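Input record, target 12 of the design panel.
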């Protein structure tokens, strides 16, 4: 007996076009080059087409942050329609430029994406919304997108919301720390520098007082013969 499928999505066959960064600053609809239109056909023919919306869509309503992601990114919000014309259905907004215009810039960007009807994930009014998936319904099935970034200033990450405190707008960060393993001779040299500059004593005092690193919930271990703190503050 032949299987009866009510929905095409039951075939579990979804075609995706996945691209990298979209750094747009002008119209795309005006171009008619053969190669360009061939690329557009590839994107529009997929069931789902994704890109990283690296530009922030705003009209300079918000002040720039003190720490941009290399430079300050901006695109006229009306060109969101050009991304859709290219065939993009869903975008990521968590990237190193998400914080270029601070908390208000994050909100302005996603308000414009909402206005022009382009689903996004990766930034939000608080950590819950920034880390939440967004969904796209297609004839071939439902697709979810979660977006996160490892790049950005420490103070730029989205913050938790509580019943008594508002959350902080920002991108969804993947936080990380870096550790170096070195040989005995090198650690002796590092320890000498740390001792001379007073870093060892500073970190010893912090450890004794139960201080913690800014981005680390673990208690500090005091400096020792095989553990050297080469900075007197938490680094990102």
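The sequence produced for target 12 reads:
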């Amino acid at each position: 007996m032949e299987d009866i499928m009510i929905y095409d999505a039951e075939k579990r066959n979804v075609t995706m076009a996945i691209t990298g960064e979209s750094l747009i600053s002008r119209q795309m609809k005006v171009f008619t080059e053969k190669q360009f239109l061939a690329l557009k056909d590839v994107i529009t023919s997929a069931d789902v087409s994704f890109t990283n919306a690296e530009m922030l869509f705003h009209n300079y309503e918000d002040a720039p942050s003190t720490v941009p992601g290399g430079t300050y990114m901006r695109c006229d919000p009306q060109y969101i329609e050009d991304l859709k014309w290219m065939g993009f259905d869903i975008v990521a907004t968590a990237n190193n430029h998400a914080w270029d215009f601070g908390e208000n810039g994050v909100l302005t960007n996603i308000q414009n994406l909402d206005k022009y009807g382009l689903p996004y994930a990766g930034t939000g009014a608080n950590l819950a919304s920034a880390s939440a998936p967004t969904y796209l319904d297609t004839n071939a099935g439902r697709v979810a997108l979660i977006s996160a970034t490892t790049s950005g200033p420490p103070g730029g990450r989205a913050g938790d919301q509580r019943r008594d405190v508002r959350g902080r707008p920002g991108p969804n960060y993947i936080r990380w720390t870096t550790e170096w393993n070195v040989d005995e001779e090198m650690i002796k040299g590092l320890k000498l520098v740390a001792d001379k500059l007073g870093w060892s004593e500073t970190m010893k005092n912090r450890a004794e007082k139960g201080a913690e690193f800014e981005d680390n919930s673990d208690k500090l271990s005091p400096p020792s013969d095989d553990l050297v703190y080469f900075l007197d503050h938490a680094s990102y």
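The CA atoms of residues 18 and 50 lie 5 Å apart.
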